[in-house]
Amino acid sequence: MVYAQSAPSFNDAEIASIAVTANDIDIKYGELALTKTKNKEITNFAKTMINDHKAVIQQAVDLVTKLKVTPQDNALSKQLNADAETTRKMLSSKKGAAFNKAYIDNEVAYHEAVIGAVKDVLIPQSQNAELKALLEAVLPALETHLEHAKMVQKNIGG
Amino acid sequence: MWNNKILLALALCFLACCTSRQPVTHYVEIKQMQFVPAILEVAQGDSVIWTNKDIVEHNVVNESKPGWESKSLKMGEMYALKIEGKDIDYLCTLHPVMKGRIVISQNK
User: Fold this and answer.
1) What is the pLDDT of residue A7?
2) Which of A144, A145, A147, A153 to mutate to test the interface with B (most CBs of B within 10 A)?
3) Which of A15, A72, A149, B86 lies 20 to 30 Å (CA to CA) from residue A142?
4) Is domain A4-155 classified as CATH 3.90.180.10?
């Protein structure tokens, strides 16, 4: 998953769609985790992902509403959703410790990929200053999620 | 005349040295997923107010048990605490990589 590799170009409506999609995917991974795990660290991590990414989506929705921009599906948002569907199927097929490991490994990889896309594609290509500022504000949260995921990965022996 | 001035100066020095220090309120901002400042020096009896400036919720939890903990703070919400006892290591349990420390200073 290296979304930033070919650096395609996006307009602000497409960037808004990618941002909402990327957050929504991680909420769904978290919701799946809550139905599959009994591990306290995984549960707490998943709850944080759900709450944080919902908060980011709310900010994005508030902003596009204010800017009167309608998020627009595009090649990257479609690719993200297709990859997420495959990952959800893979995660759903696992249980117990195998699920915990697969979930947190995916969280590490997913956050690394999303951070790369936000830094290298979405922020540089955002035209609207408020959209750019929102993406910049979200970056530290994504980086903290990545550190947190790596900590959980280490603690569960992943 | 000079004696009076010397007496006044001595009296002021005495007051400055012996009057008890008034408690101070310190502020910690929670922003960009960090406690700012991460290390805060305070005196016994001072207060600290944490304010969440981030989009996401945070909390403030004493790492020592039994300790204290704030509720989850939404953007703009605050948590206040009077500092008594010894140095405090704290964290946000929602994002456990976020840590802070309050150092009790005798020089404050």
Assistant:
1) 67
2) A144
3) A72
4) no
Tokens of B19: 């009057």
Residues in contact with A37: Cβ distance below 8 Å, sequence separation at least 6, in sequence order:
A43, A46, A99, A100, A103
Contact B87, B108 (CB under 8 A): no
Extract the tokens encoding A44. Answer: 């707490």
Give the model confidence (pLDDT) of B15-51 as tens digits.
444 457 899 999 999 999 999 999 999 999 999 999 9
ipTM: 0.89
Cβ contacts (< 8 Å) between A52 and chain B: which residues?
56-57
pLDDT in tens, A26-84: 999 999 999 999 999 999 999 999 999 999 999 999 999 999 999 999 999 999 999 99
Identify which of B32, B93, B96 has the shortest CB distance to residue A140.
Answer: B32
Q: Which residue has the tokens 């939890």?
A: B61
The reply to whether residue A148 touches residue B57, judged by beta carbons under 8 angstroms, is: no
